Amino acid sequence: MKVFHLSHTDLDGYTCQFIAKEFFKDIVFFNANYGKEVGVRIDSILESIRSDFTQRLSAKFELHNPLSYLILITDLNLTLTESMNLNQKVQDLKEQGYEIELTLLDHHISGQECANKYPWYFLDSTRCASKITWEYLLEHYTLQTPASKPWLHNLVEMTNSVDIWLEDGYNFEFGKVAMGMISSSNELNRFMFEREHRFYKFRLIESTKDFLERENGAVEFDNALFCLKKQILGGDPHTQTMDSITSQAQVRLLQDKKQECSIHFQDRLGFLSYSMGGISVLANLFLRANAEYDFYLDVNSKGNVSLRANGKCDVSALSKEYFNGGGHKNAAGGKIEGFRESFCYAEIKKQVLQKLQIL
Hints:
- This protein has 14 helices and eleven strands.
- By secondary structure, it is an alpha/beta fold.
- The chain has three domains: 2-163, Rossmann fold, CATH 3.40.50; 171-256, no CATH class; 258-355, Roll (Diaminopimelate Epimerase, Chain A, domain 1).
- The strands form two sheets. A six-stranded mixed sheet has the order 6-7-8-9-11-10. A five-stranded parallel sheet has the order 2-1-3-4-5, sandwiched between helices.
C-alpha cells in the first residue's frame, strides 16, 4: 500500500506526519494551511495516485503487489463542499478500478457536519490530531520500530497538552516551546523547498527526544534550540551566524533547481524564486556562486517583485519596463499587476514569463 498524507502546517499537523512515517514505508507527504491550498493539495494527491497507478501498471508491479492506496488527511477540517468533492473524486477512481481507502482524522468541531455525513471523516474534539492519529495507527497498523513506542507516546502527549491547551497536562511548558519552534522555523521556504522544509521540521521534532524527559527539559530545550537549528541546517553554531548558515543552505537547494527555475530573457539568464522574501543576502550569494546568471528575481504571493544583479544586468531598467517599478542597477523592485496567487511554482513562472513577454 502506498500512502498519501496531507496534514496541517503547525506542530500538531507535522507531528501527525512524523508519527505516520513510523508506520508506513511507502508514504508521500503534503501540507496545507486552510483555504484554497487544501483543494490544491488534494488535487495533487489524486493526480499523484493516477500517475503512480499508470507507472506501476506499465511496470507490471501488480503481478507482485496489489495497487492499493491510502489517502490520509490529518489536522484539517474540510468544508462540506470540499468533502463532497473529495468523496466523489475517490468514488470515480474506485469505479475505474483503483483500490483506495480514504481516512480523515481531525479534532476541529467545525467539521461536525462532514463527520455526520461521511464514514471516512473521523472527528474527536477531546484529543489533538496527533493523538487521534497515533492511537488510530496503533490500532490498525504495525509500528515499524516497536522500541520507539514510549518516546513517540510522550511526544504525542506533549503535543496534545499544548494543542488543546491542557495547562495541567503532560509537559505543557515544553509543548509551548515546541509549538513556537514549528511556527517560527521558516528558514527553508515551504513553497520553494517543500520536502526540505518538512524534513527540517521533522528533525526539529526529533530533537525533542533528548530533552522531553529531563526535569528542566523545557528550559534546556528552549536554550539549546537556536544551536540545534544551526546544526540541522548544516552549519557550525560556534563559528557561523544563522543568517550565513541559512543563506548557504538555501543557495545549495536553489542550485538543485536551476533547470526548473531558469529564465532566458533576451540575452540574459535569470533565476526565478517564489516567496523567498528578504533576498538581498541570498540573491547576491547565489549570483556570486553561479556566475552564469545575470539576475535574480523573486515574486511574493501578492505579486511584488524583487530583483538583484551583480553588475551584469540593469535590473532597475528591467523593473521599470515590465513591473512598473525601479530602483538601482543591482537592486530593484516592482509589482505584477493582476497577479494570481498560486501554490504551484509552474503557474507562478508562467505568469512571470507572460509579463516578460516570453510566452
